[in-house]
Amino acid sequence: MNDASGLDAKAYAASMAQALGLPLTPEYAPQVEANLALAFRLVQLVLDFPLPDEAEPAPVFSAEGHGA
Q1: How far apart are CA 49 and CA 54, in angstroms?
Q2: Closest to 29 measured CA to CA, from 42, 17, 41, 43
Q3: Distance separating alpha carbons of residues 35 and 56, to the nearest angstrom
Q4: Residue 3: pLDDT above 70?
Q5: Confidence of residue 57 (pLDDT cuts 50, 70, 90)
Q6: Is the confidence at residue 36, as pLDDT, over 90?
Q7: Is 5 helix (H, G, I), strand (E, B) or coil?
């Protein structure tokens, strides 16, 4: 599964499972790969979002008053 960003979800899942010492059985591998491919696409949307040069991060985030 390749996505537009060029990341290979199948290879990434296999290498991360090996690096973390986690079993990735053939039964679950397709679902893991599909979720990674979706995550890669969502990340690309965030990375592609244009921000003006003068944009700065908020100094403090508080979830109070926002239903959290």
Answers
A1: 15
A2: 17
A3: 31
A4: no
A5: confident
A6: yes
A7: coil
Residues in the chain: 68
pTM above 0.70, yes or no: no
Other CB atoms within 10 A of residue 37 CB: 19
For 2, the token pair is 């390749």
C-alpha closest to that of 20 among 4, 32, 8, 30? 32
Chain centre to alpha carbon of residue 66: 25
Structure tokens at 35: 């979720």
Cα 58 from chain centre = 23
| Between 3 and 6, residue with greater pLDDT | 6
